[in-house]
Amino acid sequence: MLSQKIVDRINLQINREMYSAYLYMGMSAKMANDGYRGIATWMMTQYHEEMFHAMKLYAYLQSQGAQPVLAAIDAPDFSASTIKEVFVATLKHEQFVTASIRELLELALAEKDYATENLVRWYVDEQVEEEQNVLDILQTIDVMGEGKQGMFMLNVELGKRKPTIALDFTSMA
Ligand code: FEO
Q: How much is the pLDDT for 84?
């Protein structure tokens, strides 16, 4: 059985993951509007990853007999006029999520809630990967420069991204 503190904190994390999904959807819309459909695809794939992160927590609460409580999701908050700025904003956001996951892990440890600890450690690993992905893209931008040719190549490359997770969440209901 989960403590109310843990349930509340997991519900907050669900909201943050849903916000992440919304943020990536907003970034995808901007990239598509600017003519970078490959980068828009990368962002929309990330949207699905974030929905999976939220749904994994949602399903965990239900598996423990707790009810997910959904709060309002803020409008995506980012301003970027270049592709590099979009990915800098992405990295900043992922660093915020990493800190949020760390906070949840610390709470699970303080509560001696080892089941939640196990679950949250999956997110710890996931955040390492998410930050690494964005750092790689930023490094590629720095190597190629922000000229049109470089950004065109980046657009083609990022457009190849495929989802690695199940997109059908009905089995989690
Ligand atoms: Fe679910 Fe990108 O953090």
A: 97
- Classify residue 130: in a domain, yes or no: yes
Q: Looking at residue 71, what DSSP letter applies?
A: P
CA of 156 to the centre of ligand 1 (A): 23
Nearest CA to ligand 1 atom 1: 50
Contact 104, 117 (CB under 8 A): no
The answer to whether position 171 is within a domain reads no
Tokens encoding 103: 């906070």
What CATH number does the domain containing 30 carry? 1.20.1260.10
The pLDDT tens digits of the residues spanning 92-141 come to 999 999 999 999 999 999 999 999 999 999 999 999 999 999 999 999 99
